[in-house]
Design goal:
Shape: globular
Order of helices and strands: HHHHHHHHHHHHHHHEEHHHH
Number of strands: 2
Largest sheet: 2 strands, antiparallel
CATH class of one domain: Mainly Alpha
Keywords: Membrane, Transmembrane, Transmembrane helix
């Protein structure tokens, strides 16, 4: 606390005439020195009392008595450093983001690798991206960690689209585990940037690779729609929505690939930093159209879920277990002989036979139908010539029982 005081001293006129102005200066300086001394004493006493009051109400540390000179000077704060705090921030941010995303899918790797769900998460990252730039103008740890999380979603989309669907369906847990380990390995240079000094380079070139794979994934989805021959109206709608999402992936992936090279030129070739801003202007402009092209996929996904985490169907159309995903990678769904009579929607017979414990009945898997599924449900049933022959064992046993009587 600082106290300022000002005093005006008026001397008699006869004293001024007799002694001149030197008496006035001497009297004024003496008075100011006394006021300053009293003010300093009052401020020191106030600060001492404030410190004593704060120490009385603060929680004391539980450290034992020690002769360590660092602890004697800084207290228990000396036990912390920047690396510890940076690692704590990374642990909290990664677990909060991906923990919430997997919580909404019931911590099921198969549901988490739903292509439609990953597309929605990818679209939501476009909402968070400008907020990160607006509220954090520096290239610091929080921003780099966000970029890593965005790139992790892009890698998952690329694996879901480019890898064989049967491999994704059978090894979804392994894919999630390896993806998390890769995210942790890339986080180490970021939290140890105080020693490494190249974490921004690592994140930028990882973004270049993930955006390239995302663009290739978009091309793959568009090609599947172009060469496929959907059997039902719903599968046609599904392939069109995924093709539009593929266009969004190409828009973002191929445009954002320029960020890494431009960032490297700015750092090491003395290029004007304004070019880095122009590149992100292009990224943000492409995000307007990319988000719009992802809306049809979001419509299919939210038509089958409630309260963001429950789902009306045991297997959603975006999962790898969907019959159209388990294909021979030749551009079309499997033949109708894999369908069973009585199913409202087809099941993949060969995969179900290999895993008897995972066979789901039609009523369990398809309790709620979309309007287009109800109108075209008859198309999902194979022709009578392709249905498995009916067994007469039951009728034969009944006839034997009647003859025995």
């Amino acid at each position: 606390m600082t106290v300022s005081a000002t005093a005006v001293v008026t001397l008699p006129q006869n004293l001024l005439a007799a002694t001149g102005s030197s008496a006035l200066v001497q009297a004024t300086s003496t008075l100011l020195i006394s006021i300053a001394a009293s003010t300093a004493a009052a401020s020191a006493s106030y600060s001492t009392s404030a410190t004593a009051a704060a120490s009385a109400y603060a929680l004391p540390d539980d450290l034992p008595r020690t002769h360590n000179r660092w602890l004697a000077i800084a207290g228990d704060v000396a036990l912390y450093n920047t690396d510890l705090l940076a690692t704590a921030i990374a642990l909290f941010q990664h677990t909060a983001v991906f923990g919430t995303l997997f919580l909404l899918r019931g911590f099921s790797p198969k549901r988490a690798l739903d292509l439609h769900y990953l597309t929605i998460v990818f679209a939501l990252s476009f909402v968070a991206l400008p907020l990160v730039f607006l509220f954090d103008l520096r290239i610091d740890e929080v921003k780099l960690l966000f970029f890593l999380e965005h790139e992790a979603v892009e890698y998952l989309i690329a694996i879901r689209v480019l890898a064989p669907a049967k491999f994704v369906a059978r090894n979804s847990g392994l894919i999630v585990l390896l993806s998390w380990c890769g995210l942790v390995l890339l986080t180490i240079p970021v939290v140890l940037d105080h020693h490494f000094h190249h974490s921004a380079d690592v994140v930028a070139w990882c973004a270049f690779t993930s955006d390239f794979l995302l663009g290739i994934s978009g091309l793959t989805l568009v090609r599947r729609w172009a060469v496929s021959h959907p059997l039902t109206r719903f599968t046609l709608r599904k392939s069109r929505a995924e093709a539009m999402a593929g266009v969004a992936f190409m828009l973002h992936g191929f445009v954002t690939m320029s960020v890494g090279p431009v960032f490297a030129l700015v750092l090491y070739d003395d290029v004007d930093p304004a070019y880095f801003a122009y590149v992100f202007v292009a990224v943000f402009l492409s995000a307007f159209f990319a988000v719009a092209f992802m809306i049809p996929v979001a419509g299919i996904f939210f038509a089958n879920v409630w309260w963001c985490c429950g789902q009306r169907k045991a297997i959603l159309p975006g999962q790898a277990e969907w019959y159209e995903g388990l294909e021979d990678n030749k551009g079309g769904p499997r033949a109708e002989q894999d369908y069973y009579a009585g199913d409202v929607a087809p099941r993949y017979a060969a995969y179900a036979a290999a895993r008897e414990e995972e066979i789901r009945s039609p009523n369990e898997a398809w309790n709620v139908q979309l309007p287009e599924e109800r109108s075209t449900a008859w198309q999902s049933v194979g022709s009578p010539s392709r249905l498995p022959p009916k067994s007469n064992v039951y009728y034969r046993d009944v006839l034997k029982d009647l003859l025995a009587r």
